Amino acid sequence: MTGNTGNTGNTGNTGNTGNAGGSVAVDGWVFADRIDWPFVLEAGGDAAPTTTPLPTFPDERWGAQWRAQLVLAEFLKRVTWTAFNLKVDHNGDAADPLHDPAGEIAKLLVMATDNRADALGEILSQNGEFLSYFAGLLQISPGSRPATRTLLHIAEVVATVAVMYFKYQEKRARPSTVCPALFPPLSVPSHPSWPSGHATQSHLVFIILDFALSGSFVIDTTPHGAIPGNHGPLTEALRVLADRIAKNREIAGLHFPTDSAAGKNLADELLDILKTCPTFLQVVAEAKKEPW
Hints:
Elements: H1 39-42, H2 64-78, H3 101-114, H4 116-125, H5 131-137, H6 146-170, H7 175-178, H8 197-213, E1 217-218, E2 227-228, H9 232-251, H10 257-274, H11 278-289
Antiparallel strand pairs: 1-2
């Protein structure tokens, strides 16, 4: 069935992947001016009023994607790459990139046959960016809940640099290189397969949000103030979404299952380091105060 491919129109927003899609970032607006009557002329020209004394740029005005770079800088000062252990997942299953490739290829061939047609819309839509899926699940709109949006971008940039480091170390070929008949429905990325970037990023988004949701409060407008929130259903939905994004890359023939397992392990270790970064903890504290 290819009925779900109608959703592929959403991929038009993925061109600016650095900003993770228009539904998350708000930078990039363009405003026209008039040649015959410029706005500055109507506003006073050379005598246009200015702000004095010279203001500083307030912290709350930082864009989510740029504030995430500050956390990345702190993370890079604390990370020791040789301390990571990605080869075995938490269920004890082998996640070694040299483990039983023939068995994994057999699984991917079944997924391609049984699941790819139905999953194709999501596969294409999530190829360039998928933070908008999490933003939609969280009911975030452009300009709302800036700290929570910053957490999404932190997961994106931290996971990206970590994934590329380990990809270069292992240099694992893509599944379709091992078995061309897998023939992915989109261009194969120009970097190695292990660990999966989509699995790492999506799982890191989930566990960061779970960390932020734990003990957080829903803002209540009644005189009683804040009340504890029941976030169990949301947390479970975030987990399912993260797993689904990773699985779609396997169905597409772009990743081995062990790529996804290693990505989840990597995300867990990345969060442990992020918890030592003051700016990250400050963003989490701010996110806890936002209405969930």
